[in-house]
Design goal:
The chain is an alpha/beta fold and 217 residues long. It has six helices and twelve strands. Helix 3 crosses helix 4.
Length: 217
């Protein structure tokens, strides 16, 4: 098992390595493998990138992203302008399902509401608005309302795990409760845990994934 100091050093190096991120003002703390990111950045995309960078480091068990977004002078935008750009971004990214998504903006913080059929639509909606200039954060409350019966969800997920080169499928079990998926077992890294969870979300009919997989190198 890697020490907290080793993880902290690697997270700091990973943040500095990212060309899309100014890590100058980001503080990193690690306790029992859980990484906490604090201080501030100049855009929401930088906050998001910092979290993604930290999750790539071997040995971490969790990430708490407490970074504050402080927009530079002149970068503040009125909420209606942000909302219009967010709606346009959604239409561009999801031309056939964006009409089922509503955008609310308050003090630069974007909230997404509505219903879609697939998890990838929910993820792409958030990804689209994440790039809108002037936002300070995104809350994704879009609900999944699948049209597919969940009878073969377990089989499809298990097949997806076996196909995935990042995952040792023999160490993961899949349980189904209606349209809810419960993953159990052990993996060797946070990245493998996330890969297994992504595979579960990609199955048609899944509305919730409970990830109980633990990390045990």
């Amino acid at each position: 098992m890697r020490s907290d100091d080793e993880i902290k050093h690697d997270v700091e190096d990973e943040l500095k390595w990212d060309p899309d991120l100014d890590a100058t003002n980001i503080a990193v703390a690690v306790k029992d493998g859980v990484v906490t990111l604090t201080s501030f950045v100049k855009s929401y995309m930088e906050k998001y990138e910092a979290e993604i960078d930290a999750k790539r480091v071997d040995g971490i068990r969790g990430v708490a992203n407490d970074i504050e977004v402080r927009l530079p002078a002149g970068a503040e935008r009125p909420d209606p302008d942000i909302a219009r750009d967010a709606v346009a971004a959604l239409k561009n990214e999801l031309p056939y399902s964006s009409e089922h998504i509503k955008v609310l903006v308050r003090n630069g913080w974007v909230t997404l509401e509505g219903e879609v059929e697939w998890q990838f639509q929910r993820e792409r909606a958030e990804s689209a608005v994440r790039r809108v200039p002037g936002i300070k954060g995104v809350t994704n409350t879009i609900q999944l309302k699948p049209k597919v019966a969940p009878t073969d969800i377990k089989r499809r997920i298990e097949e997806a795990l076996r196909r995935n080169a990042e995952v040792d499928a023999q160490r993961i079990s899949v349980e189904i409760n209606g349209s809810e998926v419960v993953l159990k077992g052990t993996v060797r890294s946070w990245a493998e845990r996330e890969a297994a969870e992504r595979a579960a979300w990609q199955a048609p009919g899944v509305t919730r994934v409970v990830d109980q997989v633990t990390i045990s190198p």
